[in-house]
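Check out a protein:
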Amino acid sequence: MPIIEITSFEASEALLVNPSLFSMVLDIVSTAEGFISAYGGLQVEDKKTAYLSLTWESMECYKKAVANPRYPEMATKLSAAIVGKPDTLTYNFVEFRKDHTPSFDAPVTEFCTMQLKEGRKAEEFEAVIEPMHNAIATAGFSGFHPPPTYGDFVGKSGHFLVTSGWDSAKDHHAARNNTTKPWVDKIHEIVEVVSLVHVDFHKCI
C-alpha cells in the first residue's frame, strides 16, 4: 500500500484567506517520482489547524524527493502558509490497510489517533476494528461515505490512525448510537484515543 505523509500546523492568515496556497507549495513535489496525490484542509473543530497530506508510492520515493536539491524551496513556500517556521513541523507517515481515498474525498474526514494500552497487542485491535468497520459500513448512517479504514503509523509501534468520511462532523457524532456503542466499548478496552478531529480536506493535486 502507498505511504501517506501527514503534517499539521497552525494556518497563517494568508492561508485562511487563500486556501489555494496549499497547491502553490506543491509544484515541486508534484513532479517527483512516486508522488500520487495531495490533500489540504482545515480542522473543523478549531478552524485554524491546517492539515497537509501527501501520498507516495513508497517511503523510498519520499526519501528520494526530500533528497532533491529543490526540495528546500517547498519549505520556503510553505512558510507563507504557517505560523512559525517550516523546520519545526512534525511529519507523520501512515500505511493504511485499505484504500483511504473514499474517506479523504468526502466533505469531512475523521482522523482518530489511537494507541495500544499497556499489555495489549495489535492483533487484538485488528480483531475488533475490522468487524466494527464492517458493521458501520452496512448500517446506513446518514452522511456516511464508506468504507472506513485504518493504518499503522510508520516507526511508531502500537499507534494507529482510523479514518472515515462524512458529509459533516455532525453526521459522525449522530452515528454514535446503539449500533456503534458495543464496538466502541470493545475498542476502548484495547486502545486509548489520543485525538479525534475532523478535517475538510480538498484534493490539491
Remarks:
- The first helix runs from residue 13 to 17.
- The chain has a mean pLDDT of 92.
- The longest strand covers residues 144-153.
